Amino acid sequence: MSPFDDPATLERFARLAVGFAANVQPGQLVQVKTEIGKEAVTRAIATEAYRAGAKFVDVEWFDLHVKRARLEYAAEDTLDWVPEWMGAKLMALSDARAARIALSGPVAPHLLDGIDPARSGKDQLPALKETGPVVNARTTNWTILPCPTRPWAEEVHPDLSPDEAWTRLGEQLLHVCRLDEEDPVAAWKRRAAVLVGAAARVRDRRFDAIRFRGEGTDLRVGLLPSSEWIAAQFETIDGIAHMPNLPSEEVFCSPDPERVDGVVRATKPLVLGGNVIRGLEVEFRDGVAVRIDAEQGAEVLRGYAAKDPGAARLGEVALVDGDGRIGKLDTVFFDTLLDENAASHIALGNAYSFGAGEADQERLNRSAIHVDFMIGSDAMEVDGLDAAGEATPVLRGGAWQL
Q1: Adjacent-strand bridge partners of 145
Q2: d(CA 291, CA 160)
């Protein structure tokens, strides 16, 4: 039996999501973005939100089966159309200073197999272009957490029986969310303090660029004069602290979108819009991704990167050490939330405004997309470069060197 079959575990998970990660306040509107197949966790979170004093809980369901039907049969020139009211709803939640909770994790890992990747790259729902501006406006306290499903468990652990895989994935999710601790909130606060300290040490060096070398990668990512390395906890403009990713093991900043050069190979598969991209390799020149290749699914990412001028440039660079709980499991989860917090990563598309100072806001990358892909491993050497190109080791073997 999986821990997530136990009502007490569901309640404890929901309490961590609502009371700590999202930090729902009495009287707030709460949105829960979820999928068909995640009903038990969704209902537990909605219940806990009402216990916390929510005025109203809006559960927004997404069905990947309906997306497949669109990709199969809709006219190609309609696939990138998004009803205005979908974005307007998110903006209304922003105006209302709502809390937002989203559940990650695939519900049907191979459902989009056989669909033309070029068509898949055009339909980017449930992603919305309004998400980046709302995050940057800091009007909502939000979080994303992993939610187990049986198909996901079988994808992650194909060597186990379905029941054993379901149990194993549940145990792993409890572990990486620190729900196997007597006081998971205290455990997260201790880890957050470590990450915040690491971010400060990288920030204080005021590197001109970060260089990644190893695993087929040699990539130089330029930084802005005010690139701001941050970690773990955000705060809304109203002063509500929240943890956008739970689990969160990264320190990150917004880079200079015009100074990225070299070749980078992904060290983990990328799941994008229900599609799995394997063996990804991207070449950058003067900040632009001029080549996107992959063993599988390259056309999907090419479609995303063609969304607008900023979609082919970087909006984030993130460093992940080897002390986090996810990487130590040596498991590919096929879920960006978990895999990006197991390995250093970069993101095509929109930059976080709080990832750089006021002086460089006009230079930040802007796009309707934000796609993280994983490039880190214990074999990856990460250096900070000064303006003269002199290198200072930052990560070696997954350990901080500063």
Answers
A1: 103
A2: 38
CATH code of the region 3-176: 3.40.1830.10
* pTM assigned to the model: 0.90
Domain ranges (residues) in the chain: 3-176, 184-400
Q: How far is CA 242 from CA 143, 236, 360, in A?
A: 7, 8, 25
Tokens, residue 211: 């260089």
Question: For residues 242 and 143, what is the distance between their CA atoms, to the nearest angstrom?
Answer: 7
The answer to whether 315 and 254 are in contact (CB under 8 A) is yes
Distance of alpha carbon 267 from alpha carbon 269, whole angstroms: 7
Alpha-carbon distance 313 to 164, whole Å?
Answer: 42
Q: What is the tens place of the pLDDT at every residue in 254-309?
A: 999 999 999 999 999 998 888 889 999 999 999 999 999 999 999 999 999 999 99
Longest Cα–Cα distance in the chain: 58
